[in-house]
Design a protein that fits this description.
binds adenosine-5'-diphosphate; PyrdxlKinase; alpha/beta; nine-stranded mixed sheet; single chain; 13 strands; UDP-N-acetylmuramoyl-L-alanine:D-glutamate ligase; 23% strand; 296 residues
Length: 296
Amino acid sequence: YCVLGFEVDTVNSVQFSNHTGYDHWTGQVMTANELHTLYDGLKLNGVNRYDYVLTGYTRDASFLEMVVDIIRELKCQNPNLVYVCDPVMGDQRNGDGYMYVPEHLLPVYKEKVVPVADIITPNQYEAEILAGKKMNTEKEALEVMDLLHAMGPETVVITSSDLPSSLGKDYLIALGSLRKIKADGTLVKERIRMEIPKVDAVFVGTGDLFTAMLLAWTHTHPNNLKMACEKTASALQHIVRRTINHARGKEPGMWVGGGMLGWGGGTWDGWGGLHCWVVGCRVGWGGCSAEGSVRH
Ligand SMILES: Nc1ncnc2c1ncn2[C@@H]1O[C@H](COP(=O)(O)OP(=O)(O)O)[C@@H](O)[C@H]1O
């Protein structure tokens, strides 16, 4: 199906009853073999040419390794392919970080996945464990982003952090860094900081949504990370506000689903012809969050 001008093929990396923030969850974790089988089908039909690949939540190391093999092959098919990786591993609550996927995935992300990624979207905790360095200050955050660039990706966006905001404790900080070596050898660096008004609730799926929106907006603004991030954050802000208003009963009749991608301004139509492959799960039905949107 076609969303925001992208024709998207989705592949489940897990198929769960609900997201793992619930007390219980059941379902299947997809294996490397299952992914390979699907990819083989695409190859046999000669339809394995993509403009973008986006990956999200995964629990299986060999599945991740297979993703890397496939990305390499897809990049041979289309050298301009952009791989957007959300290294979904964990989060922090009240300053304490924890992993919600098996710990042995970290070295696979570090050594194999991040090096082939063009854009990565870790949260603060994921950025710190990938870089092997804490970021307690903005200066340290810039150093962490430089370490992540050195691992491969040209674009690094830290989707949320608890760095202090000059606007007060009701704001969360997101940071972005674009580091490009131009054809003439000069290094271009663009750093951005966004202060995002916090909604007093915990959302699941917002990181997934952020990454999908960023993919779409960096396509429209390939050399303007500020614009891409602003439009992404704008959509997120609208969605979390509408979601919380709905949950609190202030906004009747709203459906929290994939269709919500339509907020945030801008023209969403007419990009035509783009082909994007999303490897990630579809989390959750019901509940209060932007989770439907991970369907991209
Ligand atoms: N409580 C919140 N209030 C406002 N915006 C939020 C909130 N939680 C998430 N967001 C939005 O979702 C984006 C992704 O944040 P988050 O879900 O914390 O990332 P991750 O899932 O990678 O940890 C943020 O940049 C912000 O735009």
